[in-house]
Amino acid sequence: MTLPRSQYVQDGQEGVYHCFNRCVRRAFLYGYDPVTQRDFSHRKAWIVERLRYLADIFAIEVCAYAILINHFHSILRTRPDIVATWSDHEVATRWLTLFPRRDKHNPNALPPPEQQISALTACPERIAELRRRLCSLSWFMACLDEFIARKANKEDGVKGRFWESRFKCQALLDEAAIAACMVYVDLNPIRAGIAFTPEESDFTSIQERIRAWHRETMLPGSIPGKSSQSNQVASSSGELQNQENAEVYSNDNPVPCNSSCWLCPIQSDSKRRGILQMTAAQYFDLVDLSGRMLREGKRGAIDPGLAPILWRIGANPQAWPDTISHFGSKFRLAAGLLSNLRSFANRLGKRWVSGVSMAQAAFSASRPQLA
């Protein structure tokens, strides 16, 4: 079923979405290309760095991501409640930081001058439009995809498409769907056979969360060494910083971001609202145990400690391996509990949407009784 994205991703409404895109002709344009025998792996760091930068500009949170050799996944949550609290001055500052007005005599991006900010705030209609854009999923992904495409094409000295199409998008309607999709995204490198454990999965949110958790909870000296992701992101910004206080600065990324906190937290704290009702450690266990199920001889085996977590979020433990293995292909426009999927279809004026049978098998609205 093909629908305009505007029918189910509406500006001004909070939502969680699984967004993904693939390189044109499925070429390995940010991995090792066996045809040209060129290695484009450094471009993965561009995508992570750009995601981090945009998360600091937009009222959109990055909940999960995975960068593979010819496609990437991201899970984003729009936050219209946050953008509504910004003053007109802050909206103008953020927009001019994202789209600076470069002087022909000085092509480098500079902090927006107060004169430009004041000129923008003097137009309420324009500020209202920019406020909507700074919470728009389409604008966020456009600023990500276009930036990477232009930078890669410039490096290759070519013109034309870098991505095969506009990004694909699935609405995640409840916590069960969000948790399943996050695990699906975080386990992509393991399923692809390019990593063996979550902590070894470079260019994924699970690795970044584990390293941040180590920095916050472990004693000095016990932090695992930098991965290729950490080194490439640091080198791409032109500086090697202390890992515990890593910040990224560049002409393209003028806003500093702390690498240990830029992702949406798993569990809510006093400062930020989390994405799941579980601790970070519980989520790590969920990913780790789910990853073991995907290995040969382990498929379908549910660890006793995993079942309570799945029941709590409304997932069916018996169907969990299939859910996280085929999430991207079993669901189309949206994923969630059967009741939520039917409500989603009603909102679109449709009798049904693809994924109803999968939702019925994968998710349960009530916890089964224990023997």
CATH homologous superfamily annotation: Transposase IS200-like
* Shape-level CATH architecture: 2-Layer Sandwich
Helix content: 40-55%
CATH topology title: Alpha-Beta Plaits
Radius of gyration (Å): 21 Å
| Overall pLDDT score | 83
User: Looking at the structure, what is the overall shape?
Assistant: globular
Question: Which structural category do the helix and sheet elements fall into?
Answer: alpha+beta
**Assembly type:** single chain
Q: What's the main sheet like?
A: 5 strands, mixed
| Number of DSSP-assigned strands | 7
As laid out across the biggest beta sheet, the strand order is 4-5-1-6-7
What number of structural domains do the residues give?
Answer: 1
Total helices: the number is 16
Poorly predicted residue ranges: 237-259
Instruction: Note the beta-strand portion.
Output: 5-15%
- The run of helices and strands is EEEHEEHHHHHEHHHHHHHHEHH
The CA-CA distance between the termini, in Å, is 41 Å
Classified by CATH, the class is Alpha Beta
What does this protein look like?
It contains 16 helices and seven strands. It has 371 residues and is of the alpha+beta class. The chain has a single domain, classed as 2-Layer Sandwich (Alpha-Beta Plaits). The strands form two sheets. It has a five-stranded mixed sheet with strand order 4-5-1-6-7, sandwiched between helices. A two-stranded antiparallel sheet has the order 2-3. Helix 1 packs antiparallel against helix 6 (137-156) and helix 3 crosses helix 5. The chain is globular, with a radius of gyration of 21 Å. The two termini are 41 Å apart.
